[in-house]
């Protein structure tokens, strides 16, 4: 089994077209076919099914893909580890939800680039549990994730801070004047929510379900900005992190409800695969993140903000 075979297999598994895979691999289509047939012969299984002009991964192919990606990533890490001046250079791939990307990371990126100019930061947006697959296959090195628990058998995590989650409405909404907004006040109300898989949305919906509260229409968005704009336009009650709406609250463009229900807050954590080699570059990024966020979110007396 050769590295080139694994590279071509992973490209074809992503493209699912021989012509596109050949272009990306800078080779001819017949070579892609030959490499895949050779790999299938060595493994003794079919990795792809040919359906006319289309191909799909077989079940063994799907399982093998995870190991192929991990093997290629491990080889790249090995090259970086022994390369001259490798300690503090090369790319770091980081996954984060939109609210973290937009409102937390700019200062982190600015500080990190000043201290480590030869390390390239590559950010990928994610929603909810999709980040676990990217960590497991090595597509990303670190992930910022809003959640209270992590599958500890596969991943390590550092709890960074508690993210305050707010319910918001337009100033004209009747709940804007309510002194104490209880869960029952949301019955029949239209809701503006982030995508499925979002940890604080899941927490909010579990609360509604446990109290048998039926909202009105639920509109789902992939964009924090879209949720804000719709809330300010009076289209419903929005659920968002406080950091995403600071300016709008200061300018009274929207109102944070005086929530009397259970806390909707979640922890933001920095996570990585348990078996991943933590290079000096990864350690440097961890340190910058911790130092900056410790200053922004100091621990209360007698408590630690990290674990």
From TrEMBL:
Gene3D superfamilies xrefs: 3.40.190.290, Winged helix-like DNA-binding domain superfamily/Winged helix DNA-binding domain
UniProt domain HTH lysR-type: residue ranges: 1-58
CDD domains, sorted: PBP2_LTTR_substrate (cd05466)
Stored SUPFAM superfamilies: Periplasmic binding protein-like II, Winged helix' DNA-binding domain
Pfam families, A to Z: HTH_1 (PF00126), LysR_substrate (PF03466)
UniProt GO MF annotations: DNA-binding transcription factor activity; transcription cis-regulatory region binding
Keywords: DNA-binding, Transcription, Transcription regulation
Family: Belongs to the LysR transcriptional regulatory family.
Protein name: LysR family transcriptional regulator
Organism: Occallatibacter riparius
Origin organism lineage: Bacteria, Pseudomonadati, Acidobacteriota, Terriglobia, Terriglobales
